[in-house]
Amino acid sequence: MAYYLMLFAAGFAGSFHCVGMCGGFACALGRDPGGRGATVLRHLLYNAGRLTTYCFLGALAGAFGQVICTRQGSNVPLLGDSIDFAERILAVVAGLLMICMALQFFRRLRVFHRLAIGFAASAFAVALRSLLRARSRAAPLAFGVFNGFLPCPLVYAFVAEAASSFRPLVGVLTMASFGLGTFPAMLMMGGVGQILTPAWRRRGVTFAGGCILALGLITLSRGIVPMAVHAPPAWAGGHAG
Amino acid sequence: MSAHDESLCSHCFLSLGRRPMRHTVNGASCAFCCYGCCIAFQVKSGKREEWDAAWILIRLGVGGFLSMNIMLFSILLYTGAFSGADANVLPRIELLLWVLATPALVILGGPFLVETWFNAIRGRLTSSALIVVGVGAAYVYSALAVVEQSPRVYFDTATMVLMLFTVGRYLEAVGRARAARDLEPLLAAESECATVVDGGAATRRPVREIDADTLVRVRPGERIPVDGLVLEGESWTDEAVITGESRHVGKGVGSSVVAGSINLDGPLLIRSSGPGTATRWAQICRSVRDALSRRGPTQRLADRVVAVAVPLVLVLSVLTVLFWAHRLPFDRALLVGLAVLVVACPCAVGLAAPLATSIGIGRLAQCGCLVREPGALEALARTRALAFDKTGTLTSGKARVVSIETEGVEADEALARAAGLERHSEHGLARAIESAAAARGLEPVATREVRVVPGRGIRGSADGEMVAAGNRVFMGDLGWSSTLSLSARARSREATGHSVVYLGWGGQVRAVLSLDDLPFPEARSTIEALRDRRLNVALLTGDLVQAAQRIAVAIGIDDIEAGLSPEGKRAALDRLRRDYEVVAMVGDGLNDGLVLAEADVGIAVGSATDLARETAAIVLPRSGLWMLPWVVDMARAVRRTIFTNLMWAFGYNIIALGLAAQGALQPILAAAAMAGSSVLVVVNSLRLARLPDPSPPLPRRSTPETSGQGVLPILGPVIEPS
After folding, report:
1. Exposure of B313 by Cβ count < 10 A (0-12 exposed, 13-18 middle, 19+ buried)?
2. What angle do CA B217, B247, B585 make, to 5 degrees?
3. Residue B560 and which of A82, A211, B154, B613 are 20 to 30 A apart at CA?
């Protein structure tokens, strides 16, 4: 449980980044003319869309990890005394990825700028723009779903963490904790976004970077230090698959 | 904030770090801390609405929400997260999947079902029928499985297949919108509004409601909606859409402006010279719309193939299911059949040719080249021979004075006297003589009592003696003689195809003016560029053999047929066609309309203003001969793209079909492959938009506005090709 609490905290801290990047969307969604209830519903739908995408990515990443670390023909991930080589490699790669992301938050490294370029990116931007202007009640949900796919170092970092869990369920829970962590700030957007100065947001982002760095180091150590392999499943509350 | 603008991300206002990402949004250069912010900023601040299909997106988003939830639980099911102690929740999870899948099926599958239905009642079977049948089977089977509490459900497959196909459709729409972007200024003529000034009030009215003599105000940055004259204001305009000139043209009070050009920097008040629907811009708009609504020959062929393929695939998938049902459990056999249906769906085929063609038409239109028939581009790409008309196409069609032969007098004196006389004539050669004098700064000698003798020449009196200009017969009528040397030179001029004007005064022929139609300066380089593209070039003209030969040598054409009547040109085209199969004819569109219509591709250069009567399939702007090699390049690129697109689309289908029939391809992977093939086709077609623009030859010709009657600046030594 402590593991998920830490993820939640990292998500919460990281949401200071979200406030800058995605908070604008929450503001743009704004108030519903249908009253307070409708406004709350609209923002809940938006965030539910986002959360679903995160969980989906988490499940995919977890399943990916499991596929890589499963012996052929068997559905049971290898645990116990023989540590699968692929599992270690995955943990190292995921750990390094997370550390890279964390460094990016500290403005030390920028390699992920051009992960998606050209056609896809601008099409995506246009797509989101037309959704923001749409009047439909379902538009915020759709917008949230797409918003979740926006290239974001924070999300990538947690997806890497989810992949290194080798279990889809843990992957889903990882992303869910992170996603729920971003809820408070995103729900309160509109107010908070203008109260928080860039300097404070800067500190929040640095803190989020710290959390991700710590998670990355733990994941990396799972690949390098044999004894650390079982730590996350224990935190996960016994979902050992 | 502004002091820190340089160092802060344009979107989230966090500091940029050492290597910020730079991107131009709406013309302003912005810096971003990360790629996500860059996209987010474009979302928030982009102005251009590329298409209004937000509803597809909402459908996609809500469908994505449902199908991602389904997928998420299915992944957990497949990986055994609910095995062991949690096994009793399995039926509830399956029920949940059913509950989620039903709306997803309605939302995502609705459009496919509607399409299938409307085509089915017209007796057609389209590719969406394949999707409907496949997904419907998976859904019904899974619903029955839930009722019977059987362990395997395939709601995830059904929704994911729909989801991926919807994504493919959406990307197609994006590609189409991209393709239409270059065409937008051309197609805007029908929807554009103009600010009409009536008394003191300004109202917005659609262009089609504007008549002649209406006052229209055009702000900077707006498109000029009507042809007309400037009453107030000064500005630069960009007429590229109409004339292909990327140069900016200055306009002031009294200048005429062309509908469709962009008013760049100053407000203008314009009095329209005709109705808004009669402008060249509006004609271009109608013509482009027509061209886009037609299908080229390749696409028609592809359509026929698809029409045959769809029922075949249905049969094949049924056979696949029957085949595998003997060897595998029924649900697995059904999945193989579904994979076959999905992977054989020829979605990208329908996109292969139209997308490439419309991007090509758009690119050409940007430079003022109009394609009136989509098939023309494909035909031009296959063309191996180009036949040129001479007058007006390779030459300006306007006579210029190329030499003055004199006997005992100065050339300038002769020209001044000739100009004084020819001022009173309406003859085409007279204009050329006048402007030749003007170009040399000569004052025409005042001439009175002028009389035109039809078919002979003109005479009058200047300084008390009779002056006459005309042909040899006219001089004979007057009884005027010339020296042997002068008449010999005159005859040799006539023999080489020049128009010759005899000039005399005081009872004697004193000078002989030769006039000729000169080739455009860019003609030679254009012909060379076409040769470099392995095209055979021929000259078909109604002119005299000698004149045609001189021009042909000057611009480097070997294959000449001269003295042809319009029927003769058609026969010559047929002969060329026997040798080269596909032949394009390039003419000026004025007097060779029949021949242009007869050729496989008719290309008009600088044609008449009335597009409706135009017979050429491709119309280049006035003085746009130099663009011809580029147009050929573009046509070839379009054809190549269409072929690679079709190869991708069909090749992909055939290979994947084989895999699917063997049961080696999961339906979801098959759907992803199909969406991938759509993306490939779109991306491959969009590469056309990145081809370089044509580079104008140096030196450029003077613009149509300043070039009046042509005149050779130096009259002394004649440029006489040997």
Report:
1. buried
2. 110
3. B613
Q: Compute the C-alpha angle B387/B389/B392, nearest 5°.
A: 145
Residues 6+ apart with CB under 8 A from B329: none
**What is the rounded CA–CA span in Å between residue B281 and residue B260?**
6
Nearest CA to B480 among B489, B471, B491? B471
Tokens read off for B20 = 């910020």
* Total residues found in chain B within this entry: 722
Q: In what order do the strands lie in the sheet with B457-462?
A: B395-406, B508-519, B499-505, B465-470, B457-462, B448-453
Distances in whole angstroms, Cα of residue B668 to Cα of each of B77, B99, B100, B165, B218: 16, 20, 18, 10, 54
Please report the pLDDT score of residue B512 as a whole number.
92
CB contact under 8 A, A168 and B81: yes
CA of B62: which chain A residue's CA is closest? A142
pLDDT digits (tens, 9 = 90+) for B569-581: 888 989 999 998 8
Token couple for B138: 């998976």
- Nearest 5 degrees, angle CA B208-CA B214-CA B216? 85
Distance from CA of B14 to the nearest CA of A (A): 6
Burial class, B191, CB count within 10 angstroms (exposed 0-12 / middle 13-18 / buried 19+):
exposed
CA distance B92 to chain A (A): 17
Other C-beta atoms lying within 10 Å of the C-beta of residue A61: 26
Residues B503-517: tens digit of each pLDDT = 998 888 999 998 887
Contact A131 B58 (CB under 8 A): yes
Which residues have CB under 8 Å from B135's CB, separation 6+?
A: B105, B109, B112, B158, B161, B162, B338
- For residue B35, list chain A residues with Cβ-Cβ distance below 8 A: 112-116, 121, 151
Residue whose pair of structure tokens reads 């996500």 in the numeric block: B36
Cα–Cα dist B162/B134, whole Å: 10
Q: Who's near B263: CB < 8 A, 6+ residues apart?
A: B218, B219, B220, B221, B222, B223, B224, B235, B237
CB contact under 8 Å between A20 and B8, yes or no, is no
- Indicate the residue of A59, A133, A150 with minimum beta-carbon distance to B72: A59
Q: Which of B54, B60, B76 lies at the smallest CB-CB distance from A169?
A: B76
Nearest to B146 by CA among B95, B77, B96, B75: B95
Cβ neighbours for B691, distance < 8 A, ≥ 6 positions apart:
B363, B633, B634, B637
- Residue type for position B318: V
Place of tokens 């965030």: A47
Pairing of strands B268-272, B559-561: unpaired
Residue B467 — pLDDT band, cuts 50, 70, 90? very high
- Closest CB to A127 among B57, B59, B81: B57
Quick one: average pLDDT of A228-237? 44
Helices (H), B294-344: 297-325, 330-343
- Extended beta strands in B55-200, E state: 193-198
| Inter-CA distances, B631 with A190, B294, B367, B693, Å | 54, 20, 10, 10
Q: Is the dihedral of CA A203, A204, A210, A216 positive or negative?
A: negative
- Cβ neighbours of residue B80 under 8 Å, at least 6 residues apart? A75, A76, A241
Q: Say yes or no to pLDDT of B4 above 50.
A: no
Q: Give residue B632's pLDDT.
A: 93
Residue (of B94, B97, B128) closest to B111 by Cα position:
B128
> What distance in Å separates the CA atoms of residue A18 and residue A158, rounded to the nearest whole number?
14
CB–CB contact A113 B21 (8 Å): yes
Q: What are phi and psi of A150, to 5 degrees?
A: -55, 135
CB neighbour list of residue A135: distance below 8 Å, 6 or more residues apart? none
Confidence at residue A170, expressed as pLDDT on a 0 to 100 scale:
85
